[in-house]
Design goal:
single chain, mainly alpha, 5 helices
Amino acid sequence: MLTLRNKSVNVSRLALIGILKTNLELYREQYKEAITLYRDRLQYELEDALVIVKKSPLLVPELTKLSVKFNAPEDHENDYIEILEMMEMSVDENINLDSESFRAYIKNDWSWSASLLGAIAANKLYIAGKMN
């Protein structure tokens, strides 16, 4: 039953499992891309740092400022696996989802999604700039 006041909806458990599996596969592709881009960007940053290290005498300001200023993508595969296990174990035919769960499970818009997609975009942009 759709309840607009409470912002919740009942969905078929089997349909939800199918959607979650599809979304998990999409996530795996995105995460693989994010890791590849992270590795490529890290290599560029380390190569740039090595050039500075080789050119600079000891204790110059450039050496003290060297650091990697971006984070590796976090793996959220277990978020999908946990909810899939819960749905597969459930004896209910229909599952009630609040709006936050609906956004994550159905629309594949988790609280961490923007961070993952933002990292992919930022690293693509950085790498494109290095290739020009």
